[in-house]
Amino acid sequence: MISDKIKEIVEQRKNSIVKDIEYLKNVNGNSIRKNKKTLSESIKNNQEISIISEIKPASPTLGNIRTHIDLKSVAKEMESSGVIGLSILTETNFFKGSYENLKLAVLNTKIPCLMKDFVVDPVQYKIAAVLGATNILIINKICELEKEYQLAMENGLEPLIEIHDAEELRDIRHLFDIGYDPKLIGVNNRNLKTMDIDLNTSKQIIPILKQEFGKKVQVISESGVNTLEDIKLIQPSGADAFLIGSSIMQSDNIKEKILELRGIN
Questions:
Q1: Given CA atoms 219, 199, 254, 96 in this order, what sign does their dihedral have?
Q2: For residues 261 and 250, what is the distance between their CA atoms, to the nearest angstrom?
Q3: Burial class (CB in 10 A: 0-12, 13-18, 19+), 66
Q4: How do 158-163 and 218-222 pair as beta strands?
Q5: Domain with 183 in it: what CATH number?
Q6: Number of CB atoms found within 10 A of residue 131's CB
Q7: Contact between 74 and 254 (Cβ < 8 Å)
Q8: Which residue range forms the structural domain that includes residue 248?
Q9: Strand partners of residue 9
Q10: Distance from the CA of 192 to the CA of which of 2, 3, 25, 154 falls in 20 to 30 A?
Q11: What is the DSSP letter of 1?
Q12: pLDDT for 106-147, tens place per residue?
């Protein structure tokens, strides 16, 4: 089950696909990925705390988070602070994201870039690939996972499969059973029915993922991770990385906040 708000976002996203189709017709050039590593590769190669920093101008729960963003400057600042990847919101109505933000992030950094959106149509995969994203978010609760996973792979994108409860583990098992090789699983601490956040979600689900799939998957804890203390609370569960948006975007000093989250200052 998902909340009425999530249903509203998904429905509006479906209604706006006509704009995406027009965007794809007019966007210039092919992929500008420049041989970037994927998120799973970057996580594996990092021996420290792996932070994926999210560029999120707004959210349904917080409203406007950071307005008038100099995307190029923010992306470079995040990269120089030692994050292993960027997550860029491209949903326009509720998160105030854009494809232009994704394009600028890809062009101005050398680290992996995740296109984060409510993916409801194949055209979104094509746009992500053309703009040079290395990864794309697939929210298991709003899609047919096998179909969406295949679309991601066909477009040269590494999917981040987002789950929210233990019941969804059967869908991950199914991908392995039919011969797929998912490398990146996100455990979202936000309950999509109540919209509440509980870090215990990661503490409960990540050990099961690690026990069952081991080193086959890199697991990311998402939502509600705001401090180094939150990271230390979840780390023993086996989390390989942390996707952090609001607390970084709300900070007056992005670099200082990221270094704090990495345990450097």
A1: positive
A2: 14
A3: middle
A4: unpaired
A5: 3.20.20.70
A6: 27
A7: yes
A8: 4-261
A9: none
A10: 154
A11: -
A12: 999 999 999 999 999 999 999 999 999 999 999 999 999 999
Q: Which two tokens stand for residue 106?
A: 């890809």
Note the pLDDT tens digit of each residue in 113-124.
999 999 999 999
Number of H helices, E strands in the chain: 12, 10
CB proximity list for 22: less than 8 A, separation 6 or greater: none
Q: For the chain, what is the domain count?
A: 1
How many angstroms separate the CA atoms of 58 and 96, rounded?
6
Catalytic residues: 54, 56, 116, 162, 188, 222-223
Closest among 198, 167, 202 to 187, alpha carbons compared: 202
DSSP structure string for 161-200? EEE-SGGGHHHHHHHHHTT----EEEEE-B-TTT--B-TH
Contact 214, 22 (CB under 8 A): no
d(CA 97, CA 101): 7
| Residue 135, phi-psi category: left (phi > 0), alpha (psi -120 to 50), beta (remainder) | beta
In which residue are the tokens 């991770």 written? 225
| Residue 14, C-beta contacts closer than 8 angstroms, at least 6 positions apart | 120, 121
| Cα separation, 26 vs 100, whole angstroms | 13
